[in-house]
Amino acid sequence: MTTILITGGAGYIGSHNVKYLREKGYDIVVLDDLSRRFADAVIDAPLVKGNIGNAALLDKVFTTHHIDAVLNFASFIQVGESVQQPSSYYLNNVGNTLVLLDAMTRHGVKKLVFSSTAAIFGNPEYTPIDEAHPKNPINPYGRSKWIVEQLLQDYELAYGLHSVCLRYFNAAGADPDALLGERHEPETHLIPLVLQAASGRRTQITVNGTDYPTEDGTCIRDYIHVEDLAQAHWLALRYLDTHQNSAAFNLGNGSGYSIRQVIDMARAITGCNFRVEFGPRRNGDPSVLVADSNLARQHLGWNPKYCALEDIVRHAWAWECKQSR
């Protein structure tokens, strides 16, 4: 049986991957320092508490568990924080990842699925955004991810370490069984913020900018269900089993929803008429971010199941109802 090391596996996307891959029959080991994540999010897998920057701990994990492949989710992800604290983002997202890559090389582990981001593209020159779009990240978070993608190219040439980089657009939703969902401290993502306003855990939701060149004046984003992301990681592992080359794929639905549409859908599903405030634009927010995911569909066989905004919000609301009890 294949054993997968999932770093950052107690986080939002990582924990959903743990559950998904366990259901597919994989043995899973989770490594997470729990600095920004939750131990109870790890379902049916051993949890090793620690940081991927700890080389001695990594040697112990790789020796004890005979790891076949790695899924790396151990990154800081807040754009605004990365601007204020670039040092911590480069140290964690780049420096610690180098320690992980070196440990993989020492132990002969040649397969890595890397959690990347649409932030590597920066302000879009065209939409939908395909893999050939210029990479011009505009914040330390996006730059840290792009640096790692380039490092992986070098590690493949030098050490034969093959990787698949998955560039998410807007991860959203929750486990359809409501066993897992989105938890960030602080929360910065739109859908959980809106649903916290609906449940009463938040007094209001603030919309930043209503004068964008879109149909209703608010930003349009490409939301992708976290379960569909988990499917993509499983398919990426299978790709690495059958291909002796690295690859990178954009992951999104290929259609966007505006902030007003998300709010309207949340009101329809929850039945709550929560308070919405309108403020000025935030610096660096493009009006439209939508993915072209044709390569992932062609080469991975990826077929997202929950493309409808209604499914994404409904699953997230079931999770929020559990959290707000």
UniProtKB/TrEMBL annotation:
GO biological process: galactose catabolic process via UDP-galactose, Leloir pathway
Enzyme Commission number(s) from the entry: 5.1.3.2
A GO MF label: UDP-glucose 4-epimerase activity
Entry keyword annotation includes NAD: yes
Residues in NAD-dependent epimerase/dehydratase domain copies: 4-252
Record keyword Kinase present: no
Keyword terms, alphabetized: Carbohydrate metabolism, Isomerase, NAD
Pfam family, one: Epimerase
Recorded coiled-coil stretches: none
Pathways involved: Carbohydrate metabolism; galactose metabolism
Cofactor(s) for this UniProt protein: NAD(+)
Protein name per its UniProtKB record: UDP-glucose 4-epimerase
